[in-house]
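Holo prediction — flavin-adenine dinucleotide.
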Amino acid sequence: MAGSGAPGLARGKEGEKLRMLRGRVLLSRWRPLVAAARPSAEPRRQFRTGTFRQRGRFQEFEKEMVKFRKRLKEALPGSEWNPLNISKDLPPEQADVVIIGGGVVGWSVAFWLKMKEPWRNALQVVVVERDLQYTKASTVLSVGGIRQQFTMPENIQMSLFSAVFLRSINDYLGVFNQPPIDIQFNPSGYLFLASEEGAAMLEENVKIQRTEGAEVSLLSPAQLKKKFPWLNTDGVALASYGLENEGWFDPWTLLNALRRKAVSMGVYQSRGEVTSFNSFSREMMTADGEVVKLSRIKHVNVQMPDSTEYSSVKCSIVVNAAGAWSGRVAELAGVGTGSPQSLAGVKLPVEPKKRYVYVWHCPDGPGLETPMLIDTTGAYFRREGIGGNYLGSLSPTEEEEPDTQDLEVDHDFFQEKVWPKLAHRVPAFESLKVKSSWAGYYDYNTFDQNPVIGAHPLVENIYFASGFSGHGLQHSLAVGQAIAELILEGEYKTIDLRRFSFYRLVKGNKILERNIV
Amino acid sequence: MAAPMALRHGRVFISLLRACSRNSSHSTAPSTGLLKRRGLLQYLCDRFYDIEAFVDGGMKLKSWNLERKNKHYIQICERYGDNLAAAVFALMLKGGIRFQGQTEWYRERNEKRYCLEVSQYQGVPLEALDFSGSVINYDGLGSLVNLKTLKYLDLSRCPNIDDWSLSRLHVFRDTLQELSLAGCPQITERGLACLHHLESLKRLDVSDLPSIANKGLVRILLEEMLPQCEIVGIHYDDELPLCLEDDTHQGETEELQGVACIWKNSKIPA
Ligand SMILES: Cc1cc2nc3c(=O)[nH]c(=O)nc-3n(C[C@H](O)[C@H](O)[C@H](O)COP(=O)(O)OP(=O)(O)OC[C@H]3O[C@@H](n4cnc5c(N)ncnc54)[C@H](O)[C@@H]3O)c2cc1C
């Protein structure tokens, strides 16, 4: 080599390069195995899902690790310092996306952002949640229902998507080396009853549902009586019954599974309350000569729990998934604080509305075939387990709307409003024993009871995903995906949710969903 | 041999990494800086993901295979109709079929032969399908949902049949007379509840379902739900629960005392 002339050297180098290149091509075929040895960390796609398999040996190892950590802790008494787990739920100093609210919607957005990011750790995502016990979050206080029987195609499509997701939940949310997820789905269907006046509407609704691909059957009172002998069909003219992909599941399991998966994919969880934003704003003139103030959130200020201390997260995008409190969060960001007649004065109309749920025992009540029944009066109930327990309630009328200060349950409401209606529909419920009850907040959109999804016209980098008014649990999975698409690809790819945008509030166009329970 | 070795080594790394603080949210430093400081960790991380991707690939292959085997045979369907498509599907999964008028199960394993022989049954209603011990799953049942004459369906010992799958059986409500779900590991009472659609059912085999807890109670409830049907495989005295109060609700609900307000107070491990 040393003796060869300059051109030869060059050729030799060239040849080497070529050989190396070829080697790379060859190597890249074996990428999964050997890529690690390559120093240049070319971005690689996040590995996707796979069915989960249990691996006994790792679990043994993990158990050992837990023990080891415990021993370590004992060896360092009185110290909070933990060498293996430095995290104290503090948010990072900066992030690409800050998601406010760690309910099912927030975690779903986080999961889908990670799922769709172009390469691993391309995005730094933080979920800020003020209450990790979830004492007030709607997610865990809901009744866990999923149905296809909506009247807006978007809502039906979202539910169908969620049903497929839940069915293959282990493909989506299974975490390597962790036990599989059992969502405890009860495929028992929703049964909507309609009175004489409502019958035509019900038929119309079912037509829409069927064109969207939902399996729904119509039942006459006689057919109802035959199928559900315990039902009193007085005042019922027609019923629609969901045959597939409807029922109820355990919201806690879904929330935990989403969170576990998202965290395993690198999402940060931070504990604290978002109390303010630092934004930067500038004035612009619209085509019709109106001056508008555009703003951009620069920092999200997170107040640490049980202290006055707060930390600031520099971020480029904020997702408002604060459920029933998202109206307040939007206000902090300056949404709706301008003069009432202008664009800047349009509020996010999402408020907490208190809803009760009662659990009762009735040994002679309806059997295993009990669906989620929605009465003509709006009262609903379903079976809870197989021990003769049921749960149900009714949404109060506007005049009856209870105070939302706390989650106290009004027992008279059951006695006076709910029970008579249910006992009329199911005579066996004339004798029952209320066992327990709870209350939760609907993230209620006072404008049109439909969610507000997508960006804001003036605050450039905030995205909304709230206002589900009682069906957010089942739609969270689809909405998470939609928001991730909007953020990463700039438009909806799977389900077109443009009708739910903030613009409809600006224009005053209500979009109505007839099946709100 | 190399791959399993790599796998075995990989596992150690995987556990190690999982046990480290990779998952926990980190105080201030964003991850890129963090990883630069820890070259070795970065290396292992990459390795971890690669090996995990490898294992994951294996699992994907498996689920792809399952998917492939459960595919709806659209072509056959279009050409020969739903009956023959379902018949071919059953034979491909090493099951058995019986057309109307036959008394014996037909269980040919040779693909060429059964395709030829089954095609002679065009127009004859398919009455019985035996999928016992096969890989049929929710999607696979999609090949059967158009059958108008199915009277007998055997899904016993099918590891992929779950509650979701059972919710597809309502399509046989007018015809299905016998159903066996014996030994399906995933089925619970939640799925059995939707069998109430099957109004013609005369015999239901629910023996040996490991995921059902209160077997005696489930038997009683099944009999109430399907009065015309003989339930086999569970006895009244199988594990009758001592306390029926138990509900499986998410979170815990406490007994109501007086009119005190009750909260559901469960915790997510932080
Ligand atoms: C009684 C009842 C029954 C229901 N039944 C059903 C049903 O059958 N099917 C269905 O699909 N849906 C149902 N829902 C609706 C469903 O529960 C909600 O729509 C859904 O859970 C909304 O999820 P979320 O993540 O937006 O809200 P949440 O779960 O409420 O989460 C929001 C989180 O944001 C946090 N947060 C708020 N403000 C801040 C802040 N400033 N900083 C930090 N964190 C903050 C809160 O602590 C909370 O944890 C029901 C609701 C109720 C109340």
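READOUT: The mean pLDDT of chain B is 75.
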